[in-house]
Specification:
single chain, 7-stranded mixed sheet, 0% helix
Length: 121
């Protein structure tokens, strides 16, 4: 089972940018869907964005135009470019691979440990 490690979080002022990375321990070439979620203090975890291997992306409505998800299969890495950050974007950001069937085998959902993004006003 692939393991995921996020990096790139930190403290940034409102209006700033950060780029999160999610490094997979193995090949992501055969992993069709990957995504980013976030969980703010006292709130439920929510979807930020997903990307399919064919390049199709979906975003939470409130984040369209500010966040960009991408993947580099050659580097086994998922990215999240975050621009024009706002204090309400403060959260722990998690990388995710949904449960999937591949090659007749069930692979369970995978989460990274998360990376904290703090946006100051």
């Amino acid at each position: 089972q692939v393991q995921l490690v996020e990096s790139g979080g930190g403290l940034v002022q409102a209006g700033g940018s950060l780029r999160l990375s999610c490094a997979a321990s193995g090949s992501i070439f055969s992993i069709n869907v990957m995504g980013w979620y976030r969980q703010a203090p006292g709130k439920q975890r929510e979807l930020v964005a997903r990307i399919v291997n064919d390049g199709t992306t979906i975003y939470a409505d409130s984040l369209k135009g500010r966040f960009t998800i991408s993947r580099d299969n050659a580097k086994n890495t998922l990215y999240l470019q975050m621009n024009d950050l706002r204090p309400e974007d403060t959260a722990v950001y998690y990388c995710n691979i949904p449960a999937r069937l591949w090659g007749g085998r069930l692979f369970l959902e995978v989460w990274g440990q998360g990376t904290l993004v703090t946006v100051s006003s």
